[in-house]
Design goal:
Layout (H helix, E strand, L loop, with lengths): L21 H11 L4 H12 L13 H18 L5 H15 L2 E5 L5 H17 L6 E5 L1 H10 L2 E7 L7 H14 L13 E4 L19
Helix pairs in contact: 1-3, 1-6, 2-3, 4-7
Protein name: DUF6891 domain-containing protein
InterPro entries: DUF6891 (IPR054186), Metal_Hydrolase (IPR032466)
Pfam family, one: DUF6891
């Protein structure tokens, strides 16, 4: 599967994902499918009102950003009407990791530090519910942007020192769970503590909150 073949159908729409334009950045988050519609609007309004610091487009009002988000969601769902098998497999694999005592964070953090903070919070909750937590894995927003753009997902992993597992053990378990779900996993150096999954086609219909009642 080449780079083009591992790109989702959302690239065929009027608002394809990219990393250099405001609309493309919104489309990236819609394609990943983690944020609600209201969270997308809230997160991009501040950027839209000071566009020059981030993107080439002119500044946009809050209402204009909200309208653009709705247009992009509609456009995405016109291109992606069903989840791809590999998207389902990836999300199922992350859930399976929780059962195996491996806490995960997927696309919700903007960087590694924030992902680790989210993981610590999740681990505490799991321990309080009697789950034996051994390690963690994560893909932050930059990683999932790369997955959408190029069909490659880097997953970091590590341990909780008090749990007794080693990084190599967690890395092997994460890779094994991914493979068990039919995902292509590249050989990796354990010293990097990063596993690369790909090429994959990650497609999900956007299931966020209701769109605003506004015309196109």
């Amino acid at each position: 599967m080449d780079g083009q073949a591992s790109r989702g159908g959302y690239f065929n729409g009027a608002f394809p994902p990219d990393t250099v334009t405001f609309a493309g950045a919104i489309a990236l988050k819609v394609a990943t499918g983690v944020d609600t519609r209201d969270a997308l609007v809230s997160g991009f309004v501040e950027i839209g009102q000071d566009m020059g610091a981030y993107f080439p487009e002119p500044d946009m009002s809050a209402a204009e950003v909200e309208h653009l988000v709705d247009l992009i969601i509609r456009d995405h769902n016109a291109q992606v009407t069903a989840a791809s098998p590999q998207a389902i497999a990836l999300l199922d694999a992350f859930h399976a990791m929780t059962v195996a005592g491996i806490v995960y964070s997927f696309a919700e953090a903007g960087d590694t530090q924030t992902a680790l903070e989210d993981i610590s919070d999740s681990a505490r909750e799991l321990v309080e519910h009697g789950v034996a937590v051994r390690g963690y894995c994560f893909a932050h927003a930059v990683d999932t942007d790369e997955m959408i753009m190029n069909g490659q997902l880097a997953i970091g992993y590590g341990i909780f020192a008090e749990a007794g597992s080693t990084p190599d053990e967690i890395g092997r378990d994460v890779a094994a769970i991914l493979r068990e779900h039919g995902l292509p996993v590249r050989p990796h150096l354990s010293s990097d503590q990063r596993i690369v999954v790909g090429p994959i086609v990650y497609e999900l219909p956007y299931q966020g909150m209701e769109l605003a009642e506004s015309g196109d």
